[in-house]
Structures
1.
Amino acid sequence: MTTSNPQSFERESSWNIDQATFLKALRQRYTFDKVFATLALLAVVFSLFVLAVLLIDVFIDGIGRVNWSFLTSFPSRRPAEAGLVSALVGTVWVMVLVALITFPVGVGAGVFLEEFISDNWFARAIEINISNLAAVPSIIYGLLGLQVFVRVMFPITQGRSILSGALTLSLLVLPIVIIATRESLRAVPGSIRQAGFALGATRWQVVREHVLPLAMPGVLTGVILALSRAIGETAPLITIGALTYIPFLPELSLKGLQSPFTVLPIQIFNWVSRPQADFYSLAAGGIIVLMVVLLLMNATAIYLRNRFQK
Amino acid sequence: MTISSSPPDPSSLWKPNRKASKYVQRVVVWIFGAFALVSVATTFGIIMSLMLETINFFKTVPIWRFLTDTQWTPLFSNPQYGILVLFSATFLTAIIAISVALPLGLFSAIYLSEYAPPQLRKWLKPALEILAGVPTVVFGYFALLLVTPFLQFFIPNLGGFNALSAGLVLGVSITPLVASLSEDAIYAVPESLQKGAYALGCTKREAIVGVILPSALSGIVASCILAISRALGETMIVTLAAGQNPNLTLNPLVPIMTMTAYIVQVSLGDTPAGSIAFLSIFAVGMTLFIITLIFNIFSFWFVRTFREKYE
């Protein structure tokens, strides 16, 4: 078809390139494709390479330090005698408390938002609020903890105590647990709820007996992910003033909750920020212990998930 | 066999205690509702605790001096509180970080979603999650003791503390965030678009660059904004590797002090509650909170406004 429009004619003719030119261009295009695919692969490889270098570097620096006396000694001014027992025990205390707080509160809030209130303005407001909270920098939670738990609630927490630290970290990771709970509840098919209602069960009975057990693997994974976030957090605990030199262990009682404490990341930070190079290997040793604890927690998550899925 | 014509005795029927279970449900709803309100209370608590002390701070230091001074010298006899000093440092490290994390994260997302064989992908994704799960204090150790000496090999006048190595490591630490959010955005693009591009004779790269990435743009931009917001609020890497020297500079080779590093520095010292230095960390925290909040809201807004909708 011929047209009188010169522009359209020109456009048509520009398509009529000869085969040799096209093939040459095609080869070039395929070369670009290969370069592009290689770049994409390199990006992943580079990220994982950095991870590997980091882990190997820490391992080489610190493995010589990790022995029984390192795990059972208190921190010391003399690097050769220093250990991290108080930080390790502090981390265990804080983690147990954070788990005890976030599990009921996070799962309860998730169940409430997903099962009990319909999609109204209140639910949406809380949802936006939670996703905003998840993006607040962790050090801001430290300032909140400093004001509310350390100062306002001093009579209960006795200031810079294990309880204040655990409460601060709980608020920090609560959005993770709530979001994970809601997602796994949403994955439970609605027919299960309807079957329960048809038999005359109340909503809570259906949730407790049928929906929650099915959602449990996802919920537990969320809780453990939240805990592994909390275990590595340093900034909020520094802000609420977790002391770095603790030459004693908190006593195993309710009174222990009000005792000052330190945790592994803070002990590591303390050692890295010293000018003497002798402490760096201690820090690397501490990092190895921290990473092993993290690894154990993630392995537990996978184990629990598999167990519950049966 | 006889069939009784009379109705069964009502007292022998099973009667569930509906009243009790309804009562239990009501109690549970109230308790769980209270738990849900904890998140609202947290937001309220953050805003109140930051605001009260910030107002006290501005009673001593006028707000316009806070915003316009070019010195940050809280410990001098004539203290000056110019937030620009700390802000420039935070901004500098975040810019370095995102210029590492955006190409790395985006290309990783493209590889994972378009090129990686499913078997390999099953290993790469958890590996990237491990990278995301490394505590930031570990990255700080890495930046200070390995990356900085390594960079000094090439840049001899690089300080022991500097924004460059802190920013680079910070970038690697937020790469998994960019990668996973961008990958989600790429996944949301319907396959028919890609197939259409192939039908028109596009090569794979042309389909990705010309069709998929533009369609996923809103999600990619949002991931980038969220990553910047994460970089702005990151604390341990910049505290350990970028230093504690409040310099108003955009030179990445010298020690600087970010907003988060200042909060850590004051928290580590024995600052009495109510003193001006103590109040200043809340003013700095408030500034950081507002900046990250603006970034987060902008990212939500961006996704909502520019999301391509597919049927």
Note: Confidence is low (pLDDT under 50) at residues 1-10 of chain A.
2.
Amino acid sequence: MMRYGIVLILAIVWLAVSASYTIPNLVLGLIVGALVTFLVREQSGEAPKVRPLAVALLVILFVKELLLSAWKVAKLVLSPRMNLQPGIFSYPLKVSTDFEITLLANLITLTPGTLSVDVSDDRRTLFVHAINCSDIEAARRDIETGFERKILEAFR
Amino acid sequence: MSFDALFLQICGAIALVILSLSFMIVAFRVIVGPSLPDRVLALDTMTVVAIGFIAVAAAITGLVVYADIAIALGLVGFLATVAFARFIIASRQNGDDDTGNEEHVRK
Amino acid sequence: MIETLQNITAGLLLLAGSAFILTATLGLVRLPDLYTRMHAASKAGTVGSCVMLIALVFVPGADGVAGRVAAGVLFFLLTAPVSAHLLAKAAYISGTRLSSSSVADHLKTTYARDEAK
């Protein structure tokens, strides 16, 4: 079931990229999508539950945070004196599946002041580099009440 | 040429100047280093600057097919960075570490 | 009228995008160590290239480019954190040190420095 969904998504992407919205092109896109999923056999088991509204909220939050983070980096770089306290802190994960961990790590990387560096072998801890690491507890709380909660709401 | 079309051309010219400046700054980081990951990061950023150049070229000539080239360049740049990162990890594990760094060992 | 607005929006977006790219490269030079530089490159760089691509949507006479730009932007947003994460991990394993102003390093226990060598 998951596989047909992926083929459909790939076909839609194909339509968008080739910018010709015709039936023959859609069929071509479906064929290419089927070929790609045939070549990449290794697939994750079952599809996560998706709540469209929560996903939309997550996307909005993400875009806002992304613009904010680019702005903050710009301000930091242009300020004449940089008083940085960078560091790597560990973050205990509540999300458990590969999909959720990947999503959380990617979101953390594109948000203000944080960059995910590594995941422990047992997948319980995420190591995050922060540009301002003076208050580790606050940084952990930000992730926990922000993205992690939103991800749990969207995909559980 | 109407005023607004001229405005777009001027903005494009200014953007080209800013991007050229960025390109020189990145080139400085590629040359100076000091470590291999620094250079890989700078090359990655160079791809971003090149995407900017292509976008400006597309905007001031009106030939939006250039957008395809920018996206393809982004694809290739991503693959290059991933390949470099894996190379850094692999060269560390084989022991022939030429990254100019002290080594880490997994416990 | 619409064309006027399109031209002006595209021009301003081009300026904004190139400004973000400039700050990313300035960060690459000014910040103290690889990991902090990565912040600048991955965030400001991604936003910069995305904004410059979005500017193309507003160029008059650009038909059918919106879908491609949307796919491109989505692609950049998905790949930028992956390459940043992989490079940061590779750098840490290969022994790139954090700058001396760093206040914490919880990864230290996972990858111990090889003192014997």
Note: The longest helix of chain C spans residues 2-30.
